[in-house]
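2024-03-11 09:14:02 DEBUG pipeline.ingest accepted 1 chain
2024-03-11 09:14:02 DEBUG pipeline.ingest length=162
2024-03-11 09:14:03 DEBUG pipeline.predict start
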Amino acid sequence: MPADPSVVAAMDSAGVTYEVMEIDPALADTAEFCKAYDIPLENSANAILVASRKPEGHNAVCLVLATTRLDVNNAVRKKLGVRKVSFAPAELTMDLTGQEIGGVTAFGLPDDLPVWVDHRVADRDWVIIGAGSRSAKIRLDPAQLEGLAGFEIVKDLARDTD
């Protein structure tokens, strides 16, 4: 199966309705994927692991639309309650999530890793998210994310890009 089995199991366990799309792993990065598979950028959502630097050890996965930019230095830093935060490097992302860059998603994560969803994602009729691997993407109605254990819809977690 092209989607990570732990991701599929977590979605099934949560009762989420979804569709798995098998893709070329060389086209997993957002811009290339959207162009190759004719998916509007405004319907593509990226899961980004953020990690605190001062103090270390505070992490969250943020789900934002590809047409927005995660507000790391303000919204994320304040929500984590830390002085410094940044995008997690690929190695830390793999260690904490078990998922590789280009396939990171909001499901199949450790229970103590919160998932913050920018409100713009929740406002879409449908979005494409990662599937835990670079060989698949998942299409779902993001309204299903509200109220799931570990998930929180956050207003202005990201900013619109110009």
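2024-03-11 09:14:41 DEBUG pipeline.report The chain has one domain: 5-160.
2024-03-11 09:14:41 DEBUG pipeline.predict end
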